[in-house]
Design goal:
Layout (H helix, E strand, L loop, with lengths): L7 H10 L7 E3 L6 E8 L2 H17 L3 E8 L2 H13 L6 E5 L4 H5 L3 E2 L2 H5 L11 H4 L3 E2 L2 E2 L2 E2 L3 E2 L1 E5 H7 L10 H11 L12 E4 L4 H10 L5 E4 L3 E5 L4 H15 L7 H6 L2 H6 L3 E6 L4 H4 L7 E4 L9 E4 L1 E6 L5 H11 L2 H8 L9 H4 L15 H5 L4 E2 L7 H16 L5 H16 L5
Parallel strand pairs: 2-3, 2-4, 11-14, 16-18
Antiparallel strand pairs: 1-3, 4-17, 5-17, 6-7, 8-17, 9-16, 10-14, 10-15, 12-13
Helix pairs in contact: 1-3, 2-15, 9-10, 18-19
Length: 434
C-alpha cells in the first residue's frame, strides 16, 4: 500500500484554501503487513499523548504500522480533513466531533463501526457513557466510536475572585450571580477610563448560546413531528430571552471584550495572562491552562436558571470507507478506546474519557493535576444535551454565529439577528431526514 496520501487534486485544493501542510509525524516499525493512517489535532501535550498511544499500540501489534498525522490547529484540521475526503484520500482513522460527522455520513464516506464493536472481545457499548455513544448513531447505526465526553464549564481565576471579594461559584449559582461576579471582576486598573481586566471571555457561537437557551426552557430548533428539525426556534419567548441575556453580557454590561479588544487579544490569552476572571470552554482548554504558574485556577459549573442543562462536547474515532485495511483500522480504534488507550490520552488533560471505568479512575481524576474540580465534568454528564445531528448543521452554526456576533458586538438588534438567523439557515434544513 502506498504511504503517501497526497494526490495532485488534493494539492490544488490545499493551495486554493491557502492551507500550509504541516509535516506528518510518522511512527514506523519494520516489515509490517498492515498500515493505518491516523490524523489528529491538538497542542504539543496532545501530540505527545497520541505518540504514546501509537507506540503502545505498535508494541502489542507489531504487524500494523500507524502513520500519525498531526495538524495543530482545529480549524486547519477541519480544512485538511475536508480536502482529503473531497479528494478521495482521507486518513483511515480521524477524530471528528459529533456536530460535524453527519455531513460525511450522509455522503457514505464513513465506515460504520457498529459491526466491529458488536464482535469485539476488548470493549462493548455498555462500557461507554450513553450520552457519548448516542450522537454517533446515523440513521440507526453507530458510525464512530467516541473518545471523550465533555461539557461547557466556567474556568475561574481564583486569585482574581479573592482580590475582588467575590465568592467562588457554587453548584447552584444563578444567571444573576454569574453576571454580578462578571461585573465585579471587570475593572479599569490604571484609571485611564479603559477596561484592563474583564470579568468574562467566551466564543460567540451557537454552541456557547445553546445551554442558556435550554436552561431558560427554550429550544434551538423546531421539530416536525417531534423528530425532524425544520428551522431554528430562537424566536420563541424563552429562547429569545436567553439570546437577549447572552448578548447583553457584552452589548449592555461590557463584561466581555468588545470586537476590537477581542481581535487585539483573544479571551483565552487574557485569561492565561491573569487579566480575565472567567472563561467559558470545554475540557479542551486544560492542557494549555496547565502551563499557568502565575495564579490559581479551577473549573466551576455553568450558572443555571429555570432548569439544569449543559451542552455536550464529544469527539470520536471515525473510520474512512476508503480505508484499504479496515481490520487494521478497527484494531487501532479498538485499542485507542480500550481502558489502556483512553488512559494514555487522558494523561494529556485534554479528554474526559468516554469509558466510565477510565473516567472514574486516577487517569482522569488525578489529584496532583489541575483542575482540582475535574469531577465536575463527570457530575454534569446527566444534564448534557446535544445539538441536532444533521448534515447541514455545520453551515447552520456558521451562519447563526455570524448573526449572533452582530448582535453581541452592537451591530444589530437581537430581533434583527434572530430574524436573520432563522431566514438565512432555512436552506440548510431542507432535505434533512429525521
Amino acid at each position: 500500500m502506498p504511504t503517501t496520501r497526497r494526490s495532485p487534486l488534493l494539492a490544488v485544493l490545499l493551495v486554493v484554501v491557502g492551507l500550509l501542510l504541516p509535516q506528518a509525524v510518522t511512527v514506523r516499525g519494520a516489515d509490517e503487513a498492515g498500515h493505518v493512517s491516523f490524523m489528529v489535532f491538538g497542542d504539543p501535550a496532545e501530540l505527545a499523548a497520541y505518540r504514546s498511544l501509537v507506540a503502545a499500540f505498535e508494541v502489542g501489534h507489531p504487524d500494523i504500522d500507524v502513520e500519525l498525522i498531526h495538524i495543530p490547529s482545529p480549524s486547519d484540521y477541519r480544512l485538511r480533513l475536508g480536502a482529503d475526503f473531497a479528494a478521495g484520500r482521507p486518513p483511515d482513522v480521524s477524530l471528528i466531533n459529533y456536530r460535524r460527522y453527519a455531513a460525511l455520513a450522509a455522503r457514505g464516506v464513513l465506515e460504520p463501526v457498529e459491526p466491529y464493536l458488536r464482535t469485539s472481545q476488548v470493549i462493548s457499548e455498555r462500557d461507554f457513557y450513553p450520552q457519548a455513544i448516542d450522537p454517533f448513531r446515523w440513521r440507526g447505526e453507530l458510525m464512530c466510536l467516541p473518545q471523550n465526553i465533555s461539557s461547557l464549564v466556567v474556568y475561574v481565576n481564583r486569585d482574581l475572585f479573592a482580590a475582588a471579594g467575590v465568592p467562588l461559584p457554587e453548584a447552584a449559582w444563578t444567571w444573576d450571580e454569574f453576571l454580578e461576579a462578571a461585573k465585579a471582576l471587570t475593572r479599569d486598573l490604571d484609571g485611564d477610563g479603559r477596561v484592563d481586566q474583564y470579568g468574562l471571555g467566551t466564543e460567540v457561537s451557537l454552541p456557547r448560546l445553546a445551554p442558556f437557551v435550554w436552561q431558560n426552557g427554550g429550544e434551538l430548533v423546531v421539530l416536525e413531528g417531534g423528530l425532524r428539525p425544520v428551522r431554528l426556534a430562537l424566536d420563541a419567548r424563552a429562547a429569545r430571552e436567553a439570546v437577549e441575556w447572552f448578548v447583553a453580557l457584552q452589548a449592555e454590561h461590557g463584561v466581555v471584550p468588545d470586537a476590537l479588544a477581542e481581535a487585539a487579544e483573544s479571551s483565552e490569552s487574557r485569561f492565561m495572562a491573569g487579566r480575565m476572571g472567567m472563561f467559558l470552554d470545554s475540557r479542551r482548554a486544560v492542557p494549555t491552562f496547565r502551563d499557568i504558574e502565575a495564579f490559581d485556577w479551577d473549573v466551576a459549573p455553568l450558572p443555571q436558571r429555570e432548569q439544569a442543562a449543559g451542552i455536550l462536547h464529544t469527539d470520536a474515532y471515525c473510520m474512512a470507507a476508503a480505508a484499504q485495511d479496515k481490520d487494521a483500522a478497527w484494531t487501532f480504534i479498538e485499542f485507542a478506546n480500550s481502558p489502556e488507550g483512553q488512559a494514555i490520552v487522558a494523561a494529556s488533560g485534554r479528554t474526559v474519557p468516554s469509558l466510565v471505568e477510565v473516567a472514574e479512575s486516577s487517569a482522569f481524576l488525578d489529584p496532583e493535576a489541575p483542575p482540582a474540580s475535574s469531577r465536575l465534568f463527570l457530575d454534569s454528564i446527566p444534564i448534557l444535551r446535544g445539538v441536532p445531528v444533521m448534515a447541514g448543521w455545520v453551515d447552520i452554526e456558521e451562519v447563526a454565529g455570524d448573526e449572533l456576533e452582530r448582535a453581541f458586538y452592537g451591530q444589530a438588534t437581537v430581533d434583527e439577528a434572530i430574524s436573520a438567523m432563522i431566514s438565512r439557515t432555512l436552506p440548510f434544513f431542507s432535505g434533512e431526514e429525521g
